Amino acid sequence: MIKLGIMSFAHMHAYSYATAIAQVNGVELSAVWDDDVARGKAAAEQNGTKLIADLDAFLKSDIDGVIICSENVKHRPMVEAAARAKKWILCEKPLATTIEDARAMVELCKKEGVGLGTAFPCRHVPPLVAVKNDIADGKYGNIYAATCTNNGSYPGGWFADEALSGGGATMDHTVHVADVLRWMLGKEFTHVYCENGNLIRTGIGTDDFGALHLEMEGGVKIQHIASWNRSKSYPTWGDVTMEIIGEKGVVTVDAFNQKINLYNDDAMKAQWVGWGDNSDLGLVQDFADSIRERRDPAASGIDGLKAVEVTVAAYKSAKSNQRVAV
Fold it and tell me: What pLDDT does 125 receive?
């Protein structure tokens, strides 16, 4: 039995990961720690496990690995504490808010001999896996360009506090697409031009919209929209979409289109109910397998670092109004 602990329920994804853990054979949520004790206690009770309020005691317990879902700026100290305790680590994205922090996390985990993964569940979405395999098989020939979106609902709370989040929608919703493109194409990003700001909400502490023009090795051109533009009445949290242009054809993929329409009189709005695969299950299964096999998770700390490099370059570009090298 692989025993996992969750460090912090500050990020809403922690609740989804806890649910996924309960559905994966041979894996259990053994303990919870949270610097907000009341939140941690409630989450532990909700998921049928125990809260260990003392961090040292939590990390000295018999858990094999931890999933870190804190505010973005707290990722580094939590990763470092878990690494020194010799625990395998899956860290919520973005891995860090600065390149320096992300690189330090990767280096320490390597020094301590523990696996470090970044929570990129899109790698476990079947339509994206299918497109990746088709590209690798040469179905579309050389890839020339792609247009991508990652639009979502405004999460509020600490996400709009730059001191805790490190950035807004540009950071929150660029890392997924950046990682998917690196994973699909096997190429690195070379340049970023970004314009961002507050097009939807005023008075929040971060950007809620980013328009990015990126270039990858070999001159592949990428257009990407990252936003918190979904209204409260929108059927679901958001999307990940791609149109990829190759020499032999074009492929369009809507990553989360396995859904049915529900017209809910209780909620008084239309809703989308997913019927397909749960990418968080794949993420947790891979993390458990990485512990058993003593390897990095599929999306490693290095992958997290590379995505951070893109977002840092995007914010530099937005500030300077210049194209920035990654």
Answer: 95
